[in-house]
Design a protein that fits this description.
Length: 446
């Protein structure tokens, strides 16, 4: 059974956390006259399968009995496998599951004989091979008995750990999947099982992701193929994987936007904001901003996205129901409608000039006549009634667009007035950056 992270529509949030199942997948590579190719298997169409009809790599759920396959493994023990995967123990279970699933789904077996030569399944009579495969599909114990009878050992040293993915929160089924890569063994041919897998294909990774190819690819499969497209040979890719250290966990998040709901990957600008606004995976956070879009970032912060070339506006307030508006935008109807309460203060991160002061006074008169325009200096503190703003001076690493920055102390959020990562000092206690454009993001400062 193949089970991997998906980008399907999230289920409604539940008070009961969804169980996360462990899984393993094996990416098979081979070299051809046209370059490095990867094996993809097309899953059968099933009404209750979120990955129905998708093109995937061989793999599936780690079975509780996979630990018994340790007896048949060579080239890697559980201690070394666990260290490689960053686990206290049980790492070899993932390697064993990847090899087992590859044999069940594709008919490819990573096993060696008594002389450490990979077995040549094509040399076996067809009836005998099918009988062995059928027996293995009945359970892990059957695969164990089969290897023991043949004098084979599972060749775990032929696999290289490649990546680690976790299904986004909110999905109907969630899988914690370890991906391995291996060069296709000689004297073996892919034979889909005909039940879960109905077709196989060898493609260059770059070709597999082309729209014209028309393959249904899950987010994790597409992202992996894009990674593999950087390598010109199986040896090159294997050497890269064996040299990897500290492989990170990739957990996409599902969000909404112009193209509908989709998986947002960890390197995308919206990722951290989505995690803050939608940790349970409802799918209602945004991966794209448009001018005038109002987003409640917290009980104390509301953002109005700026026009092209104009900064965002941020309403910041506390329990008193009175709010400060940082960097108000002129002639923005959405801004006036978005005010969560009475606007008492107008603030700007820009330098105070005759032009900027006149612009802010004009806006106050037109929209918030009861508000006060403030130009606080570095070091001052503003009490907003349940919210405290500290005024900070931009550091030398900033782009010079801001004359002051505002730190919301209760949420450790810094309003920068710039679109770049500001210079943050540990004693400023900043956790989140609210930039002039784009999404909020975390800072590494403690």
């Amino acid at each position: 059974m193949n089970a991997k992270p998906s980008a399907a529509t999230p289920a409604p949030p539940s008070s009961v956390p969804r169980p996360i199942r462990t899984a393993a997948s094996l990416i098979l590579l081979r070299d051809s006259a046209h370059g490095m190719e990867v094996l993809l298997l097309r899953r059968a169409e099933k009404a209750d399968d979120q990955n129905s009809g998708a093109s995937v790599f061989p793999g599936g759920v780690v079975d509780t009995h996979d630990r018994s396959l340790h007896l048949m493994c060579k080239g890697l023990d559980d201690a070394a496998a666990s260290t490689r995967l960053g686990l206290p123990d049980g790492g070899l279970d993932y390697y064993a599951a990847a090899v087992r699933e590859c044999f069940e789904e594709a008919g490819i077996l990573f096993a060696g004989d008594s002389e450490d030569r990979l077995v040549e399944l094509d040399q076996l009579p067809a009836g005998r091979l099918e009988a062995m495969r059928h027996a293995a599909q009945q359970g892990t114990d059957a695969l164990l008995a089969m290897c023991d009878a043949q004098g084979w050992r599972l060749a775990m040293d032929r696999l290289a750990y490649f990546s680690h993915w976790l299904t986004p929160p909110g999905m109907p089924r969630r899988f914690d999947t370890r991906f391995f890569i291996a060069a296709m063994p000689p004297a073996q041919n892919v034979k889909p099982d005909g039940r879960e897998i109905v077709e196989h294909m060898w493609l260059k990774p770059a070709e597999a992701v082309e729209t014209r190819r028309g393959l249904k690819l899950m987010n994790v499969t597409r992202r992996t193929l894009e990674q593999l497209a950087r390598f010109d040979s199986a040896d090159h890719c294997m050497a890269h994987a064996r040299a990897l250290t500290g492989i990170p966990l990739n957990m996409p998040r599902v969000a909404d936007g112009p193209a509908g709901r989709r998986a947002v990957n960890i390197e995308e600008a919206a990722y951290e904001e989505i995690g803050r606004l939608d940790p349970d995976g409802r799918g209602d956070a945004r991966y794209a901003l448009k001018a005038g879009l109002v987003t409640q970032l917290s009980a104390r912060i509301h953002r109005v996205a700026g026009e092209a070339g104009s900064p965002h506006s941020y309403f910041v307030g506390g329990e008193s129901g009175q709010w400060a508006l940082i960097d108000p935008a002129p002639r923005c109807s959405a801004q006036g409608q978005a005010a969560p309460g009475s606007v008492r203060w107008l603030l700007s991160t820009a330098a105070r000039t005759q032009e900027s002061a006149a612009s802010l006074d004009e806006l106050r008169s037109a929209s918030w006549p009861n508000a006060a325009v403030l130009w606080p200096e570095h070091g001052q503190t503003l009490d907003l009634g349940g919210a405290t703003l500290r005024v900070l001076q931009p550091g030398p690493a900033d782009d010079g667009a801001a004359a002051r920055q505002f730190l919301l102390a209760e949420e450790r959020t810094l309003f920068t007035g710039t679109a770049v990562m500001p210079a943050v000092h540990a004693n400023d206690k900043v956790e989140w950056i609210a930039p002039a454009s784009g999404f909020i993001f975390r800072t590494s400062a403690d």
